[in-house]
Design goal:
The protein is of the alpha+beta class. The chain has two domains: 266 residues; 67 residues, no CATH class. The protein has ten helices and eleven strands. The protein has a six-stranded mixed sheet, sandwiched between helices. It has a three-stranded antiparallel sheet with strand order 1-11-10. Strands 5-6 form a two-stranded antiparallel ribbon. A hairpin with a 6-residue loop joins strand 5 and strand 6. Helix 2 crosses helix 7 and helix 8 packs antiparallel against helix 9.
Amino acid sequence: MKKLDKMTLEESFSGDSEYIIIPNPIYDVVFRYLMEDTESATIVLSTLINEKITNLHLEPQTHAKKHTTPIQVKDPSTKDDIRLFHLDFTATVELPDGTEELIMIELQKATQPDDIFRFKRYISNNFLKKQEKEIIHPTTQAVTTINKPIRLIPIFILNFRIENEINDLLIRTNRIKTGVFKNRELKKTNEFIDNLTYDLLVVQLPNLSNITESEYENDEYKRKLYALLQLFDQKSKVKNNEHRLRLIRRFFPGFLERVIRRLQAADINNPDLEEQLHAEDEILRVLIDHANQITYLREKDDKNQKALEQKNKALELKDKALELKDKTLFENKKIILAFAKTLKDRGVAIETIVKQTKLTKEDIENI
């Protein structure tokens, strides 16, 4: 397995170099290391949601989720199963009016579109989480503790595109409360509506190259956001080692210094990092092979289903044809029997009737 050579490692820490080298944060093991640092995580999340975070806590119970896969891939240092994860944070944000609000930020990252089902399951779980709030009765001053829903902000960092309509780097859904008949927006907080809805942020990393300077240069939020997401630019992979990114130093403003240093420290603090990255590659390969196999089986099943439908349709047509034939024969026999009865009533000999109608002697006698 390819190691990061000494010269490249020294270059990544040198403040004089035109370039910086960082472990690729698209990998879960690198991203987890970055976001376990509260200060770095605060910079990343506050930049993404464009809100001031005054306090941040990584929820330990959902820190790591084991990814079920038919092949067990081991961590080279601990020999434990490699775990792929999503991250949940509780954060206190300062609102424009100076008050504070407790929110939950659900951060997920994926390289395969099939992960949408995992996303939906995790959102459903976090949407049910509550916080305790004390309510003081205005007359009696009695204190009552109630459960209040926590505002949820799901963030998805995707290494694939989900739309080709506008090809934006970040898609954001905003909760806009509009009256249908009055055609007016509700500007104030509404607990009923706000607690049943959430904002949604979707990053499409392949669209980094579609953003022009004119689209962010005059907006501070967009400038910071674009600079942050450039740390995930997959077109900046080091030649012959996709586990590292080689980025131009001057593109990154000072507020990202902590984040960059944290990423660079991942190599020093994790001697087996390269092995872990290779192990993650293996997991991804297995998942891709599994997805391709499912696609193949689905296509094969679709073809078999179509063939079966065509066969059933042909049998159905055959049955209808036989039914029509039987009905025609029945109607013809009725006509022949009626003709035979007429001949019989006129005294024509049975043998003669048999010859003319092709009926049996028994059929004619029973008329």
